[in-house]
Amino acid sequence: DGNDGTYHGDESIDMITVSAVDGGLLQAGDMAEIEAKVWAYNDGDGDTADFYYTADVNSNPNWILIDSIKPLGGGIRALTVRYTLPASAVQAARVNFRWKGKQGGTSDGSGSCSGGNYDDADDLVFSVVTGG
User: Fold this and answer.
1) Would the pTM of this model clear 0.70, i.e. be above it?
2) Cα dihedral value 18, 19, 20, 22, nearest 10
3) Which of the four pLDDT bands, split at 50, 70 and 90, describes residue 15?
4) Which of 74, 119, 76 is nearest to 101 (CA)?
5) Among 77, 108, 88, which residue's Cα sits nearest to residue 8?
6) Rounded CA gap, 61 and 46, in Å?
7) Torsion sign across C-alpha atoms 47, 97, 118, 76
């Protein structure tokens, strides 16, 4: 995470959860919701959370951008996105919470971690039911 940030003084990710939208088990092909509890700096105006998922948690995951969400104010905030779970038994979600900068940290927006001095990035690995 960023070299200059401090917990709850600058951008921080407190918690990531993944849940089934229908309230049941996480099932391949169903909708899931990723919630990130974040600490937004000041009024949150310069902050953005980039949400990603991968169906391959092994050696070189391919992180797929779901959406980028701005908090509506500073302090503790809950930000959510929804997506369809792919057919893979072990998956992961990533949240990159950044101050200004670009999604992915590169001029073309590729990558999944911006790497800014105040940014925070965290992953959560979870299991998905893939059979009927």
Assistant:
1) yes
2) -150
3) very high
4) 119
5) 77
6) 28
7) positive
What the block records as the tokens of 113 is: 């971690």
How does DSSP assign 11-69, residue by residue?
A: -EEEEEEEEETTSS--BTTSEEEEEEEEEE-TTSTTEEEEEEEES--SSS---EEEEEE
Torsion-angle region of 29 (φ positive above 0: left; ψ -120 to 50: alpha; else: beta): left
Q: What are phi and psi of 104, to 5 degrees?
A: 80, -15
The torsion angle over the Cα atoms of residues 57, 61, 64 and 67, rounded to 10 degrees, is 70
